[in-house]
Amino acid sequence: MSIQSNVEQAIRCFTNCKKIYLREREIQGISDFLLSDDSIFHITGNPGTGKTATVRDVLQNKKFEYVNYFSEPELRSILERSKTEIIVIDEFDRYLEEKRQECLRLLVSLKNKNKKIITISNNLKMGNMRFKPYTADELKGIIKMKMENELGRHIMDEECIAFLAKKHEKAGDLRGLFKTILNAISKKEIESTEESSSKENAKNSMYIKDGRKPGKESDNSTQNKDVATNCYILSVKDFIESERQGEKSIHHQIISKVKENESSKARAYKKYLAECDQLSIPSVTKSDFSMIFDMN
């Protein structure tokens, strides 16, 4: 398999955040709530710890209404009209902080309709379940499981995996970890495309010079690489260089575009979240958004 094919498959692997790893206790807790007589279940935890993804995984075969406070200005009216039994409110702590009376009235109304309510927060002090940040060992395990289960081979060695886990250990942010990996892979994709294009141009120039027509040539070295189980396309050096270059990610581009038409940071953040939902990509944390917003 060529380097470029490996890169493309790796991007798909680490863009897909639907498969949940190492959250068995949390999955069981949410499942138990759905079978209980309780009407509300508060989930809290740091950004990137898999709260929303885990809830969606548990509810994947059930009908439910999901709303994010930052991306849906008409949250209350949507939930008041909802016909589904299960309601999920993301960024609930911000909703409670900014519109406390409306939020409390909504909860009472939903409870009176016998709804099952799941709230997701980053900083809510009271909570039925807290998603703990991933440890370095857990981050290493998740990287390996994603490569083995979803990719079918390893694209980085033990040294690289340990470097990444150590880098993201403090925050325990899986989303941030995947973002770091994707940035490095995207850089590798650009390099691979440029290298292939350069080789093709050189080959065509050689044919023109010799008066021959381009044709297929066997490459035993490439064929031998195709049968390899693992293809290490990333190294520690790739991640260090990616950080130093400070390449603008797609999030920088989205935030910069939103800022052109919206000076209010709060409203800009809501538009940014909506854009991420439309593109089906994970969003950065609010603190990261604020930092990028101020930089642009």
UniProtKB/TrEMBL annotation:
GO terms for molecular function: ATP binding; ATP hydrolysis activity; DNA replication origin binding. Residues 189-202, 209-219 have a biased composition (Basic and acidic residues). Residues 43-115 form the ATPase AAA-type core domain. Residues 189-224 are annotated as: Disordered. InterPro entries: ATPase_AAA_core, ORC1/CDC6, P-loop_NTPase. It holds the Pfam family AAA. GO terms for cellular component: nucleus. Transmembrane segments: none annotated. GO terms for biological process: DNA replication initiation; mitotic DNA replication checkpoint signaling. This is ATPase AAA-type core domain-containing protein. It comes from Vittaforma corneae (strain ATCC 50505) (Microsporidian parasite).
